[in-house]
Specification:
Elements: H1 4-12, H2 21-36, H3 39-46, H4 50-64, E1 69-71, E2 76-78, H5 80-102, E3 111-117, H6 119-136, E4 140-146, H7 153-156, E5 160-163, E6 174-180, E7 182-186, H8 188-194, E8 207-211, E9 219-224, E10 227-232, E11 234-239, H9 242-250, E12 255-259, H10 260-269, E13 273-275, E14 284-289, H11 298-310
Parallel strand pairs: 3-4, 3-5, 8-11, 8-12
Antiparallel strand pairs: 1-2, 5-14, 6-14, 7-12, 7-13, 9-10
Length: 334
């Protein structure tokens, strides 16, 4: 196997004590050529002449003694060695960019910030406030990926992962940003037809909207006395998409368990009604997972504080009560 580590050391160092900044420019040229798929678009992005880009790549191949790119007048292909070198190269360039950001004044946020957040949190909490953050820091480019899957921060080059998972499930450093209550609710129309559950044991007589990947999947957690117990509910609909579950809940198709921020507006407007509020399980949290807790860039720190400011403390979310009318006097026991 080609040993890129030793070669990279030779390329970077002019002497034992000085970093060869010209070599950084060469590595950046190579990485940009690979990412843009050609010399001309890469040269345009970096503000260089295509001939300069070609010289950079030739110098790199000469120094490494290996072909990185096969190119003709019509084709452009990265070699297997070139692909392996690119994977190392992009990590090094990213570390250099992050190191340069640490030398910037804290008020100047520049560069790229790669963020991952869950779909429901992104739609309900993050996106409404994100334009103001970006306007305040116009030189900081946000790369936002939305998803619920586990994230390998180092391999994927992620700076901040906003997750609702308990901190102990992640090995990377975790920063708790806010409490995150869950609520069980239904539409007034559903409660009118099926009654209001008075205790978790009543769930077996209700239609459940099950959220895969959430606390409300096959069995739902409730605080009974001082213990959290889980209760089964009949499955009427199941999905790993919170918006699909919320839509079904609004349409009166069953009881749903949601993160409070996801349905706060619906509860406030009366479109949904919380039930079993006295059995709320212990609240979870909103966490920022980072690769290195003590070596975050100013941009990552600012973004984390921005997200913290968006999180509504769960204790401020008042449990909604059924409105006066026919449903307030019925329960699922009748």
């Amino acid at each position: 196997m080609f040993h890129f580590g030793l070669k990279l050391g030779a390329i970077f160092m002019k002497s034992a004590h000085s970093l060869d900044f010209a070599s950084i420019a060469v590595l950046r040229s190579f990485a940009t050529v690979v990412e843009r798929g050609g010399f001309s678009p890469a040269a345009k992005q970096l503000g260089l002449a295509p001939s300069t880009m070609s010289k950079h790549i030739r110098a790199l191949e000469t120094g490494l003694r290996v072909a990185l790119i096969h190119r003709t007048t019509r084709t452009f292909d990265i070699t297997p060695s070139g692909q392996r070198f690119y994977e190392r190269c992009k990590g090094i360039l990213r570390e250099i960019d992050q190191a340069s950001l640490l030398a910037e004044p804290a008020t100047v946020l520049k560069g790229e910030l790669r963020v991952v957040a869950s779909p429901s949190f992104t739609a309900s909490v993050l996106l409404p406030g994100l334009p103001a953050f970006m306007t305040s820091h116009p030189e900081l480019m946000i790369d936002l990926r939305v998803g619920s899957a586990q994230v390998d921060l180092i391999r994927e080059g992620v700076d901040v992962w906003i997750t609702l998972e308990p901190a102990q499930r992640n090995k990377a450093p975790s920063i708790k940003l806010a409490r995150n209550n869950c609520v069980v609710c239904a539409s007034p129309a559903y409660l009118e037809r099926h009654g209001i559950p008075e205790s978790p044991g009543d769930l077996k007589r209700h239609a459940g909207l099950l959220g895969y990947g959430s606390p409300y999947a096959e069995e739902w957690p409730f605080l009974v006395g001082r213990q959290v117990k889980r209760y089964p509910i009949r499955k009427a609909f199941a999905s790993d998409n919170g918006d699909a579950l919320r839509s079904c809940c609004l349409e009166g198709l069953g009881l749903g368990g949601f993160y409070a921020f996801h349905v706060a507006a619906d509860l406030e407007a009366g479109r949904l009604v919380e039930v079993l509020s006295s059995y709320r399980a212990n609240p979870g949290g909103v966490h920022a997972i980072v690769p290195h807790r003590h070596y975050m860039s100013p941009g990552a720190r600012a973004f984390i504080e921005f997200v913290r400011s968006l999180c509504v403390p769960s204790e401020k979310l008042r449990p909604s009560q059924p409105r006066s009318g026919p449903i307030s006097g019925r329960s699922s026991r009748t």
